[in-house]
Amino acid sequence: MFSKSRKYLEAYKNTDFAFKFRSRPKVIRVNSWSSSIDQVIVAHKSRAAAFITAYNPFSISRTKAVNFRAHQKLMASLSGSRLSFIEGKGSDPSGEWEAEKSVVVFGVSRATAAALGRRFRQNAVVFVRAHRPSELILLL
Fold it and tell me: What is the tens place of the pLDDT at every residue in 121-133?
C-alpha cells in the first residue's frame, strides 16, 4: 500500500520526466510550466498530456523483467487506443532511484490520466495542461 511519507512525495516531485520530441530532449517537472512542453502538446493537437509509468506498482520495487512486461502492457494498451504517445523515462536527478520507462500520453483528460495510472497500479501520475504548471495527481 502507498506510504504517504514525505520521502515518496518528494521523490515524485523531484523526478525528471524526460522524453524526446523531434530528436530534442524535453523534461517535465512537477509544479513547473514550460513553453517547450506546451509546444509539444500543441504539436500533438492536444490541450493536455500525462506522464505515466507501469514500473514498480505502488512504489514497490519489482525485477527488471516484471517491470519490462508491465511497460509492454502499457504500450499495448495505448497502441490499441487513438491516443498518441512518446516513450520516455522518469529519472531521479540524485540517482537514489533507478530510472523507470514511461510514456507521455497526449490528448487525455485529467480523469483519463488518473484512470490509466490506477489501471497500472500507480500512486501518482503527472498531468500537464497547456499554458499551466504540471501537477502531480495522487491516486490513492
Answer: 999 999 999 999 9
